[in-house]
Amino acid sequence: MIxxxxxxxxxxxxAEATLDAALESLAEQTFTDFRVIAVDDxxxxxxxxxxxxxxxxxxxxMVVRQDNAGIVSALNHxxxxxxxxxxxxxxxxxxxLPDRLAQQYSHLQAHPGCVGVGCKVDHIDEHGAPVPGxxxxxxxxxxxxxxxxxxxxxxxxxxxxxxxxxxxxxGGYRAVPHSEDSxxxxxxxxxxxxHNLPIxxxxxxxHVGSISGSSVVNGRIMAIGSQLGGLAARRRARGEAEPDxxxxxxxxxxxxxxLDAMCTxxxxxxxxxxxNHFRLSVGIKLLELSAYRPYEIxxxxxxxIAAALRDQPPISMENAREVRWYVSQASARLIKAGQxxxxxxxxxxxxxxIALAKSLWR
Length: 362
Description:
The termini are far apart. The protein has helices at residues 16-27, 47-57, 71-80, 100-110, 164-170, 180-189, 216-238, 249-256, 259-266, 275-290, 299-310, 317-336, 340-346, 352-361; strands at residues 6-12, 34-41, 61-66, 86-89, 95-96, 114-124, 161-163, 193-205. It has 14 helices and eight strands. It is of the alpha/beta class. 46% of the residues lie in helices and 15% in strands. It has an eight-stranded mixed beta sheet, with helices on both faces.
């Protein structure tokens, strides 16, 4: 086929219930000069049948299969096949609004300094019902790798469109635990600007079965991974060696289990001056995630964060206020849930009245 303007990367693994609707939303795009590269990552349900049907009826749909190796492997497999000047992302359980590709393509054409663009999304659950109150992406150019926790250059990953040359110059995807997207964005941002369009261009499925939402253990892994991505960005800016993102790190972190054990595991990666910053960043990131994920922190997390607060590194007054806000919010949730002991363990004594007052207002 003639080289399209956009290649769309879709990793697929056991998504039979939602895959057809996701692909249909691409087939109905107003911008039609695209190709879909779907990588079946060892699915054992009906995904192969669905993908074969789409490939047969629409020449723009290309299907490749690999043994199950995870999302990073699947995305890099697809990226290696890209020929188009622009590459877009999509997941097998999300929905694109009809004008998504057109809007993002036009934006990249009109802004040559922009290497990647996202958008706002409507959040839906596994049944397609609206999920209100979840955060929308802000301005990725306000990212700050020195903040606690790092202010990531956030784009909703399945709704990214980027320049192919920038993606390849950045090195594609790396096995940063549950944070391969934000790690990519830090590297893309070093090549140019990242933007988020202020309009809704898709439906992003937020469900308990997702990797990031299924358990507090996965939340801990994501907290670790996101802060490692920020650490790598800080080191690149200083011309220093980055952490080694081994493909086995996720399994090692899962075996470690607790936040303290996970930080101990990655401890040899850290310089002595990075330890306190990293531990506090990981703890506060977990508080941020648990505020809108379907899990809550546990007593061991409270003990870890309390210790990190006692060893708090020098940070700005504004950053310290944000840290206190996350701690008081989490403590209020715990009090409301009847876990007063955990709340008292998490919050310094002088924050107890604030946390109690917030719990009464929740």
